[in-house]
Specification:
The protein is an alpha+beta fold and 351 residues long. Helices cover 42% and strands 21% of the residues. It contains ten helices and twelve strands. The protein has a five-stranded antiparallel sheet with strand order 2-1-5-4-3, with helices on both faces. A five-stranded mixed sheet has the order 7-9-10-12-11. It binds adenosine-5'-triphosphate (ATP) and magnesium ion.
């Protein structure tokens, strides 16, 4: 077998590969290793490349005769990067004194994804546990008929109903989020009439807006072109934003929905339809704004929960807007109110 391609193969690898002699000094490093180290490591003790005890320990074991390949995961304390490190024996009879090969794969992204997944599971469990604990508590109380009068019973039942509805909403939002996430890369099909969507939502939400002391003001362009995209998903986006404006606006104020046609919007190719949803609420402090679209992020957890929020609304909005190649911008002034602005391309991307 010809081995003349081996140097080319090592050059092509994304993993950093180091060959060490019996003193742990570097004899060879491929381009990925040079890039990772950021200099020329030839002749250096490997400890200058990674001083992680598990990694140095694995090299030591191979140098002192262990024949089985070692695998460890290390974390670079300075950069926070994680590497999967494989250390293998190269035998004793190499002319150049090569004894050990160390290959390092950057697994930081994987680690981060793993961390996000486990945070997500912890969050979901927590969100479900609170209403479940409340419901089980009330069931226990209601089982002792002599302990509750009919009025109390009614109160407990209505709290149980509210908590059960919250769980149903949470599950529905989770399913909806996972659906839009899985379709993130697919272009949405169809066409949506934003004017009709706004009319439908404001009619449906009229009662709850009135109960909360809000009135709608619509400032819609008359010549709104249809927007390429999913009518259902864009309804979800606007419904979330309008519901938030109702929820977080002050009593006896106006929720304004305004649309504009723009020739250019930063970040969008071609003309766009901009939809602003404005409230006259207490506003959102600047430091919270970049985090609002994270799952389960709430400015005031207690207050949002009391209002029946799951904290997933804006995460869903962000994903749907991205899938439509649009932009979501949030601006807010404390004590004055917030404006959530969605820009959607009016021409199908790529055509
Ligand atoms: N118009 C607004 N004014 C002030 N704060 C807002 C506004 N919209 C959203 N927020 C803040 O952002 C947080 C996240 O909003 P999001 O819509 O994701 O969740 P939610 O409204 O709590 O629950 P959900 O929409 O899932 O029922 C809210 O909890 C609230 O703190
Ligand atoms: Mg919401």
């Amino acid at each position: 077998m010809s081995k003349s391609y081996l140097p080319l193969l090592l050059n092509a690898l994304q993993d950093a590969v180091y060959v060490l002699d019996e003193d742990r000094a570097v004899l060879f490093a491929n381009p990925a290793a040079l890039a990772m180290f950021g200099g020329d490591p030839i002749g250096m003790d490997f400890v200058k490349i990674s001083r992680h005890p598990d990694c140095i320990g694995a090299i030591g074991e191979i140098l002192s005769g262990a024949k089985t390949t070692k695998q460890v995961v290390t974390e670079d304390a300075l950069s926070g990067a994680s590497y999967r490190v494989i250390v293998a024996d190269l035998g004793h009879d190499n002319e150049d004194g090569a004894r050990v090969v160390v290959s390092m794969t950057d697994v930081s992204d994987l680690r981060e994804a793993e961390q996000m997944r486990s945070d997500f599971v912890a969050n979901v469990s927590h969100e479900l546990r609170s209403p479940l604990t409340a419901v089980s508590g009330f069931i226990e109380t209601l089982q002792d008929e002599s302990a509750v009068d009919p009025q109390q019973r009614q109160h407990f039942l209505s709290v149980m109903e509210m908590e059960a509805q919250r769980m149903v909403r949470l599950i529905a939002d989770l399913l909806s989020l996972s659906k839009v996430e899985s379709q993130q890369r697919m272009r949405p099909e169809g066409e949506a009439d934003i004017g009709a969507i706004i009319a439908r939502i404001t009619t449906t939400l009229a009662d709850s807006a009135e109960r909360e002391g809000k009135q709608f003001e619509l400032k819609l362009t008359t010549d709104m072109p249809p927007v390429p995209g999913s009518e259902d998903e864009l309804t979800q986006v606007l419904q979330n934003l309008i519901e938030n404006a109702i929820k977080y606006g002050r009593r006896d104020t106006t929720v304004t929905i305004e649309t504009r046609l723009m020739d250019t919007v930063p970040g969008i190719n071609g003309p766009a339809l901009v939809i602003d949803v404005k409230d006259e609420g207490e506003g959102i402090a600047q430091r919270h704004i970049p985090r609002l679209t994270e799952r389960f992020y709430r400015v005031d957890t207690h207050r949002s929960r009391n209002k029946g929020g799951t904290g997933l609304g804006l995460a869903i909005v962000k994903h749907i807007v991205h899938r439509h190649r649009g932009r979501l911008q949030i601006s807010s002034k404390q004590d004055a109110g917030s404006c959530f602005s969605v820009s959607l391309p009016t021409t199908r991307p790529g055509r």
